[in-house]
Amino acid sequence: MDAAESYEGAGPMRILLVEDEKAFADDLARGLGQDGFAVDVARTGTEGLWSATQEEYDAILLDIMLPGCSGYEVVRRLRAADVWSPVLMLTAKDGEHDIADALDLGADDYLVKPFSYVVLHARLRALLRRGTPERPVQLTAGDLTIDPAARRCWRGVIEVVLTTREFAVLHHLAGHLGDICSKTQVLGHVWDEHFEGDLNIVEVYIGYLRRKIDVPFGRTSIETIRGAGYRLRSDGGVPAVER
Ligand code: CA
Q1: Radius of gyration (Cα) for the chain, nearest Å?
Q2: 172-181 pLDDT, tens per residue?
């Protein structure tokens, strides 16, 4: 059964293809069209961004290297604008781009070029079955607020600017509020599965986070549990005297 036929009576599934290589985009659009999808093609990042905010697509196929605005930037801005269509990134060469970053920014899956149409079709169907992801809710730990959708963080009313990795580490701890997260768990969730660096990278990022969300505010929200890992306190690290 084709994905395009799997939603009876709902009309064809609408796909936005953002790809600047014309022959490749035309082939892909033709194949998808023959399989019953309604396909719109955008040739630049800027055009893709505009189209995706104007129409509600069931899925977006997004190239990374695009004129105007990169695929990374497109997916980041879509999520920030509350557009939650599933995004499948199309990347030119394995290792050339940091796929972990694309996934951190809100992409749902990726394919490395060259790929066969059959593989693309299978991955697209899997993505469509999953449906549009829900906008994640804000997470709080005391007066620490984390908005995973907008990738923003506040201590009280003061916004704390975090890098992509810092945010991902904090997001992971906040998702397991009050529980111990081992370095291995954090590494597995935040870095690419092929990451072969040292586990101590986690410690380094915990240090960066503390200097941003704790030290300036006189808090200790991230606890080190010796030999076990880290824990984000559910009270956000309110000083003992104020508890
Ligand atoms: Ca390209």
Answers
A1: 20
A2: 899 888 899 9
CA 46 to centroid of ligand 1, rounded, Å? 13
Q: pLDDT by residue (tens digit) across 212-227?
A: 999 999 999 999 999 9
DSSP notation for 82-96? T----EEEEESSTTT
CA of 64 to the centre of ligand 1 (A): 6
The span from the CA of 66 to the CA of 44, in Å, is 6
**Centroid of ligand 1 to alpha carbon of 4 (angstroms):** 26
Q: Ligand 1 centre from 109 Cα, in Å?
A: 17
Task: Tell me the backbone φ, ψ of residue 228, rounded to 5 degrees.
Answer: -120, -45
pLDDT digits (tens, 9 = 90+) for 17-55: 999 999 999 999 999 999 999 999 999 999 999 999 998
